[in-house]
Backbone:
RNA sequence: GCCGGGGUAGGGUAGUUGGUCAUCCUACGGGACUGUGGAUCCCGUGAGCCGGGUUCAAAUCCCGGCCCCGGCCCCA
């Protein structure tokens, strides 16, 4: 027997039904805001991934060498590939450009609850603006998706990396990234050491990092150095208030990716425990890294698999049952296929192919949760009829083949 | 990268101070029952993660690996 590679999964029909259902809702909401789907390669040159991703991502790159000795990497996320596409081919389209994707990603990490080596992300990028209006739009969009999915237990946390970077503006960018990396890891002792000889208002920095609560807390830093940033932040929050989006301020959010530069947000589904983060995003600058003019951008990604887990925890993924037909032909005549063709215009109709006796076929229909069985034998054919057995109500009627379509329409 | 717990038919399990043919339930295929489902009975299919070691003998003990579950960190 062969086993799956570590950290990968097989999705069986029952599970795929749920996943497609969720996917379709996400797709619909994204599209309703004007976002258009894009698809990029499953693997990229490794440099694209390492360019500006962050320590953690770099450590977990799923890379390989191809036969042409190229160093390639399975994509760990889609923001960088999408921005490469933007730089390569979409730079001169009218702004803003609204793109979305639902695709698999790969990270070479230790699998555990809600963490896999192959996982799916569903995200959007809004290219051309990082105005408060734009940022508020994407956060509201994420919120809308969760509402349409029916999820109750989630919390939107909003921070601002621009504020953190502003306080650190005397430190060179590389070191800033490293500091933010340790902030993200919660190793504040290391951060303190790194700031020792820097001209940075350390008291302010650590105070800001710990700020968490509703928007009033921003008043404390709405002065001097940070005034403009707080103003920008507040405008975004104003708009979210107007949209009716509930959120929490959390300035300790540093994000593991180095390209973030402004408002950032994370959404948690607390019931998921360790892997509770179901969404992350914010304002970033990446276009210039791939050779385009600097372009303000914002975006986010849902962890699709975690979304599924969160929805399951809240019992929101019961499968809706559509009528499902089984056609049992007792004789093989043209009419059998005519009937199948008619039913298939409306519902799934499978054909009995095991050459089973009627009783066994019905037994099968029963366990497979077939809702309607069609029986076609000599008797029925003589009268140009088909026997339709409703498995749930346990009633059987004969219907003229000519009138079958009317019957099906009523079921819809 | 670090730390715990595991691995017996497709799913769920029993069994071990090493010693018959590895238990039972379920699922699957067929039959009893020749064109009418959910019950019952019968028959059949089907297993000790992989590799090595100890031993007359290993599912059981030891070592290594693989995989799964979970926690830390991080991420989605």
Residues:
């Amino acid at each position: 027997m062969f086993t799956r590679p570590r950290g990968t999964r097989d999705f069986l029909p029952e599970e795929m039904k749920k996943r497609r259902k969720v996917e379709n809702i996400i797709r619909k909401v994204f599209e309703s805001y004007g976002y258009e789907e894009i698809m990029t390669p499953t693997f990229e040159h490794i440099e694209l991934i390492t360019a500006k991703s962050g320590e953690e991502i770099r450590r977990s790159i799923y890379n390989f060498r191809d036969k042409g000795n190229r160093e390639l990497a399975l994509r760990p996320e889609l923001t960088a590939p999408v921005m490469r596409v933007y730089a390569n081919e979409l730079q001169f389209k009218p702004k803003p450009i609204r793109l979305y994707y639902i695709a698999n990603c790969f990270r070479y990490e230790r699998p555990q609850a809600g963490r896999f080596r192959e996982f799916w992300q569903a995200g959007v990028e809004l290219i051309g603006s990082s105005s408060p209006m734009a940022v508020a739009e994407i956060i509201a969009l994420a919120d809308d998706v969760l509402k349409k999915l029916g999820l109750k237990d989630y919390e939107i946390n909003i921070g601002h990396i621009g504020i953190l970077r502003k306080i650190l503006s005397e430190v060179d960018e590389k070191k800033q990234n490293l500091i933010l990396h340790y902030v993200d890891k919660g190793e504040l002792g290391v951060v303190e050491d790194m700031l020792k000889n820097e001209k940075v208002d350390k008291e302010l920095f650590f105070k800001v990092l710990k700020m968490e609560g509703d928007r009033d807390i921003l008043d404390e830093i709405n002065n001097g150095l940070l005034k403009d940033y707080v103003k920008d932040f507040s405008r975004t929050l104003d708009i979210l208030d107007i949209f009716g989006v509930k959120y929490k301020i959390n300035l300790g959010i540093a994000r593991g990716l180095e390209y973030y530069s402004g408002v950032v947000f994370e959404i948690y589904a607390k019931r998921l425990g360790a892997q509770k983060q179901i969404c992350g995003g914010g304002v970033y600058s990446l276009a210039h890294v791939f050779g385009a003019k600097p372009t303000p951008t914002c975006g986010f990604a849902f962890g699709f698999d975690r979304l599924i887990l969160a929805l399951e925890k809240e019992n929101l993924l019961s499968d809706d049952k559509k009528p499902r037909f089984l056609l049992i032909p007792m004789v093989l005549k043209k009419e059998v296929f005519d009937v199948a063709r008619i039913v298939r215009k409306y519902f799934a109709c499978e054909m009995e192919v095991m050459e089973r006796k009627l009783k066994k076929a019905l037994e099968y229909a029963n366990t497979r949760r077939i809702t309607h069985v069609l029986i076609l034998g000599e008797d029925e054919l003589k009268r140009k009829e088909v026997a339709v057995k409703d498995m749930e109500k346990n009633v059987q009627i004969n219907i003229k083949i000519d009138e079958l379509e009317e019957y099906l329409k009523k079921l819809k």
User: Anything to note?
Assistant: The radius of gyration of chain A is 28 Å. Chain A has two domains: 13-313, 324-411.
